[in-house]
Amino acid sequence: MAIETTTDNAVKAAPTPGPSQRSALPWLIARRALTGLVTLWCVSVIVFVATQAMPGDVAHIILGPSASAEQVAQLNQNLGLDQPLLSQYWNWLSSVLTGDMGDSLVSGQPVSELLAERIFNSATLTAIAMVLILPLSLLVGLLAAVFRDRLLDRSYLGTSLIVTATPDFVIGSLVIALFGTVVFKVLPPVSLIPPGDVPWEHPRQLVMPLAVMVLVGVTYLSRLVRVSFIDVLESEYVQLAIIKGLPMRRILFRHALPNALAPSIPAASIMAAFTIAGSVVIEYLFAYPGIGSALVDAVAGHDLPMIQAIIMLMAVAFFCFNQLADVLGTLNKSR
Amino acid sequence: MKAVEVTGLTVALDDGSVIVDDVSFGLESGQVMGLVGESGSGKSTVALALLGFAKRGANITGGKVVVGGVDLLALAPNDLREARKKLIGFVPQDPATALNPAMRIGTQLTEGMLGTKKDNLPRIREVLETVGLPSDDAFLRRHPQELSGGQQQRVAIAMAVAKGPELIVFDEPTTGLDVSTQARVLEMVARLCADNGMAAVFVSHDLAVVGTVGDLVTVMYAGQILETGSREEVLLSAAHPYSIALLESVPSTRQRLPLVSIPGRAPAPGAEFEGCVFADRCAFVEDRCRESAPALVATSTGGAARCVRVDHVRRNQTMLVKEPLHSAEGRAEGDASVLSVRNLDASYGRTQVLYDMSFDVAPGECLAVVGESGSGKTTMSRCLIGLHEDHSGTFVMDGKPLPPRLRDRSKEVKQRMQYVFQNPYGSLNPRETVATAVMVPLKHFYGDRGKAARAKAQEALERVEIPWRLADRYPAELSGGQRQRVAIARALACDPSLLICDEVTSGLDVSVQASVVELLRTLQDDGLSMIFITHNLAVVRSIGDRVVVLSQGRVVESGAVESVLIDPQHPYTRGLLADTLEVDRPDPETSDLPG
Amino acid sequence: MIRTRPREQGAQAPPSNLTRRVLTSRQTRLGLIMLLGMILFTIVGPFLAPHSPTAVIAKPYASPGDGLLLGADSLGRDIVSRILSGGVNLTWMGIAATAGGVTLGTTIGLVAAFAGGIVDTLLMRVVDVLLTFPTIIMAILFVSMVGPSRILLVILVAIGLTPGMARVMRGAARPVMRREHVMWARTIGLPSRHILMREVLPSVTSPLMVEIGLRLMWSVVGLASLSFLGFGVQPPAADWGLMVSENKDGLAIQPLAVIIPAACVALFTIGGNLFAEGAARVIGRTEGARS
């Protein structure tokens, strides 16, 4: 009976993390994995349709209008373009799933071999950038939130507003003009890594592309950190902590930080996803040998298998980071 | 020396407008002062200012707050922090947001105390037991979100009490709680303050709550103290016209009284006044009231009121004593009911929230449905209107079966049954004027446009006492009470036979609630049938003809309001009635039961 | 039911106020002026160009002088004329793509929020699939096979903007669906179109306004980046993004040929961002949402 709520009853009535919640987790993961697979399948269909099933003669697009009939027939046979669309798709998908992406039309070598080193280079660049971005964003966002509306915060907001709005290639060009060619000629304006070398053997080549990626990444992520920190600082539990007479350090690091960090973690994952898209522009600008610049080259050379492979790869990576962000976000909420 | 001495406390916004104006009072150890006021009166700002704290955008601009011999407002930031830690405890309004979700209860309880966690643990366990909570390690390891609302509030109280402060400030600590939990918490507050010899300031919008815990009662309005004195002085023989008017607007479970609302609208925080802040709404106003601001003067009974006509008001206030209303009786038996509900079950997913509910609404009758939070009363009303479709049971309206789902109902049914929502701030489209809001259903149901529609809209608005000059205003420019009236006018414009009111007064201040209840009563006199959903038994008494008491999804008792509230049969109803707080009435003769 | 205490915030001001309110901020006014200024500049520019933007009239990277205010680019064309003529495509394509993406995204978002259930799930799945392609990758994929037609680019960028827009509008509309005035409209049986257009849409104009500023910025960024990569406006036509990539090898000799078009793109997008963020801040301050 509600009126006679005793202590014991009240304790029992309180929600505890029961078994129902725990057993729901595998179910959630399974459902997410399933929708993820369906999404990826749709992605493969789009990539296939865009490349092989477009209206018009694919072989002509690849070879150019001056190609002879024999060349066209040869290419059609090589790519299996003379078969019905469904079996083309099936052959393509099954070989992609087994890791066979076909041979490059330009060099004749297997795509997987050509891409291996490029992938490694891109991953290295992105990983180093992330390692720098995460702690920097936290620091900058925290400082801006603590000094909210003061000079430090305002100048930070102004700078980040401009950086966010400026395309990567513009920032990159200005950085090159500043440090590479025009003002101070201290760094190499292009970031060529000789084939066979690992990127960190050439640290000077990495400085400028990293600087651009870190600048863009930190301005994006630190703003989210700032906003979530400000939310937390204005929350009633922080107000109560102040009223209780706790020292500022304890309020910031014990009360505010754990709560402010939570919403920033999925954001970091989303940012990693966007870094993949941004890599195309940055790698092209600095002539860095990663998959982004490989894509630009492949499109220029109408290298169909390369295009398919790189775009599938990027979409999958992008998708994975987005999913990770979603999962982290859901975990946050349920906590 | 008094334990707490506040003088000339003033708080202003960044733009200079004053939201707390020259507040002074003193408290002995062990004394509890109830600080009561409607929304925007500045009572919560005072509560925070007692700790030397102001929200972002506001600043304490003057005055002294002396607690235990220390003037908090004169301290340097570091000393102020130490003083807060030692001298004052604070109990927030909503513990669900005021406890840190990422920290264990034990840590939050001990961190505000002097000394190490280990030293303080025995004291914490002791206090937890006095507030009726478990004190074992398992409990201390929990996070706030693993506790119920009542438990969270007890933890917050324990946190404030544990350090043995000179003063505890309670900022509306029972607002979100059910009446039964509220009664327990208030009892505990009174006991803790007396046992530990702590002075306390208890802020609330509810006169009955303040009257229950407060040794002293202080009434605030527009940032000023209008009246202060002992509980008996203020509640039984109020001297200020505002206090009197506020008391008149409080409904009672004991008798069906006409409720008197305060005319006009409460001023926005920071508004400026030439003379008395209440002059524009006062029944006793004279020219001199508007000329200069009155001072707080001692009254004949020992309190103080900020009114130049104290003695005159005191002498004449007996004129306001009200005759109890008699409930409309003897509705013709055998009349076909407007709506009958049989065997209603409803659920959300796999959780069933309503069990086998049946009732009838007779023509011209007001059926009150009363229940605490989680009793399923709102789900019931949503089932009736068709917004909640996961239910089974039969509805018959005007002799015809009513399809359960909204899309299967005819236009006529949708017009005959109208719904008024709890939240006055969400019920009107913020981008439509008042006139448009009322004309939309006119066009939809009757095809009325242009002049004809405006005439009908004007008629509907006049019925709810909204003057036509407000017709072109947007909802944001209206007060909560006015918005709720417009929502009622919009329903009336459809010419309904049944009006479902879902907690329509619970978002409103008590003086505004009075005006809405009175309005609904006049509509009922015009023959409109009504289902009135509420958690408040006093409002049931004021408006209901028959009542259905709902507990955990089941009807535990139903019958005529008079008989159920005078002689409840079910233990649940009895408990509910016992826990519902009452403001003591000044005149014992009028509380004789009618009939 | 927890008793909600009377509160005056939560209220929203009427529509005529929104524009006025947003323009009280210096930041939004500056942003709007920059945006309109750049649009005007790109439209009037071609008529002011002293030379044909495609005519080779000097040596590659010729220095300023000789009637050429800023000198010549990598092929010996007048830089001033190319800058004056190089923004008009960006402007119309950017605006068209934004209009398309915002309209489509808003429609999907509102319909998903209103219909709920299976319709909501399906639409959001489609959005998720689209979201798997970053705009630039999607554009490259199709442009690589179909060729860089301007209409195609507009469509691709619009589609790229759609999923994000749909998510934001669905997120903004869902709480509105639970508002009492929308529920009331459903109980009296007002037609869905009326509810969406009159009850829901006006309540989400604030996020809509912010999103339009942001999406305009992104579509200009995207289109300029595509031009820079060689997948957008094709040579010999003048285009700012293209100019940066054409002249970047001569950065040491003729830095202005890169820096000025880069700055033009930046001015355009910074204007959009100034407006969007300023509007978001005003709205956050006056409506209690966070900025």
UniProtKB/TrEMBL annotation, chain A:
- InterPro entries, A to Z: BPD_transp_1_N, MetI-like, MetI-like_sf
Family of the protein in this entry: Belongs to the binding-protein-dependent transport system permease family.
* Coiled-coil annotated residue ranges, if any: none
Q: Which GO terms describe its biological process?
A: transmembrane transport
Q: Which organism is it from?
A: Actinomadura soli
> What phylogenetic lineage does the species belong to?
Bacteria, Bacillati, Actinomycetota, Actinomycetes, Streptosporangiales
What the entry lists under PANTHER family is as follows: DIPEPTIDE TRANSPORT SYSTEM PERMEASE PROTEIN DPPB-RELATED (PTHR43163)
Lineage, top-rank taxon, reads Bacteria
Q: Membrane-spanning regions, if any?
A: 33-54, 123-147, 159-186, 206-225, 260-286, 306-325
Query: How does this protein lie in the membrane?
Result: Multi-pass membrane protein
* Residue ranges annotated for the ABC transmembrane type-1 domain, each copy included: 119-325
Say yes or no: keyword Methyltransferase present. no
- Cell compartments where the protein resides: Cell membrane
Give UniProt keywords alphabetically.
Cell membrane, Membrane, Transmembrane, Transmembrane helix, Transport
Q: Which GO terms describe its cellular component?
A: plasma membrane
Tell me where it mainly resides: membrane
Which stretches of sequence are listed as region Disordered? 1-20
Q: What is this protein called?
A: ABC transporter permease
Automatic annotation (TrEMBL), chain B:
Q: Indicate what this protein is called per its UniProt record.
A: ABC transporter ATP-binding protein
Q: What is the lineage of its organism?
A: Bacteria, Bacillati, Actinomycetota, Actinomycetes, Streptosporangiales
Keyword vocabulary terms for this entry: ATP-binding, Nucleotide-binding, Transport
Q: Which family does it belong to?
A: Belongs to the ABC transporter superfamily.
Q: Where is the ABC transporter domain?
A: 4-247, 339-577
| InterPro entries (UniProt xref) | AAA+_ATPase, ABC_transp_ATP-bind, ABC_transporter-like_ATP-bd, ABC_transporter-like_CS, Oligopep_ABC_C, P-loop_NTPase
Which GO annotations describe the biological process of this protein?
A: peptide transport; transmembrane transport
Instruction: Establish whether keyword Transcription regulation is in the entry.
Output: no
PROSITE patterns for the chain: ABC_TRANSPORTER_1 (PS00211), ABC_TRANSPORTER_2 (PS50893)
Fetch the Pfam families from UniProt: ABC_tran, oligo_HPY
Q: Which organism is it from?
A: Actinomadura soli
Q: Which GO terms describe its molecular function?
A: ATP binding; ATP hydrolysis activity
TrEMBL record, chain C:
Keyword Lyase attached: no
Entry keywords, A to Z:
Cell membrane, Membrane, Transmembrane, Transmembrane helix, Transport
Mark the transmembrane ranges.
30-49, 90-114, 126-145, 151-169, 216-233, 253-276
Concerning SUPFAM superfamilies, the annotation shows:
MetI-like (SSF161098)
Listed Pfam families = BPD_transp_1, OppC_N
Superkingdom, natural source = Bacteria
| Biological processes per GO annotation | transmembrane transport
Keyword Membrane found: yes
List the subcellular locations: Cell membrane
The annotated topology with respect to the bilayer is: Multi-pass membrane protein
Q: Would you tell me the Gene Ontology cellular component terms?
A: plasma membrane
Q: Which residues form the ABC transmembrane type-1 domain?
A: 91-271
Assigned protein family = Belongs to the binding-protein-dependent transport system permease family.
Name the PANTHER family for this protein.
OLIGOPEPTIDE TRANSPORT SYSTEM PERMEASE PROTEIN APPC, PEPTIDE ABC TRANSPORTER PERMEASE PROTEIN
By what name is this protein known? ABC transporter permease
